[in-house]
Each structure stands twice: as C-alpha cells, then as structure tokens.
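Bumping with the actual sequence this time:
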Amino acid sequence: MKRFALIAALCLLVPVAQGAEEERRLLKTVLEARSCTVNSYDSRSCRFRIGEDLDFEITGIGEPDVSVTIFKAKEFDNTDFYMKFGGVTWSTYLIQPS
C-alpha cells in the first residue's frame, strides 16, 4: 500500500473528466512499466519506461530526499505519454496520455 501511495502521489493525476476506467488503465500501464531495485545502501529506486516516449526514475523512495530523473520525454503533442511538473507547492509530477 505504501508503494502504491508513493507512486500515486508522485506520478499520477488524471483529470476527473476522463473517467475512472481511464484512470485504472493509466495506473496499470504505469505499474507495469516499473522496474525497482535496492542498492547496497538500502536506497530504493524505481525506473519507469512508459510507452515509446517516456522514461524516468525515482531515486530514494522512502527517504527524506527523493529525486526524479527524466531520461526521455517528448513534447506533449507528439507523444503517447507525457510528464510535467505540477508545481513547487505540491512537488508533484503528472503523467498523462496524449
């Protein structure tokens, strides 16, 4: 449950107008794209390769300082998925299908 809450808080916000079914499909797509590891310092990282155009990693999951590294992202109008920063106030990243 903790893992789901972190991923949902950091990665997912789908407009309500799209409906619950699309939200479930997006969540399933993101979770299936996840590959997690724990290094020798017990630091957990998860890399997400979503669709053809979005590739990012969350490092330090469960620690006070977490980083998000974006390896690949295209403009939102020329891609299958895009990611944007939700703002300093919430420190949230948004993933949405185009």
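The tokens above came from a reply further down the thread. The chain has one domain: 2-97.
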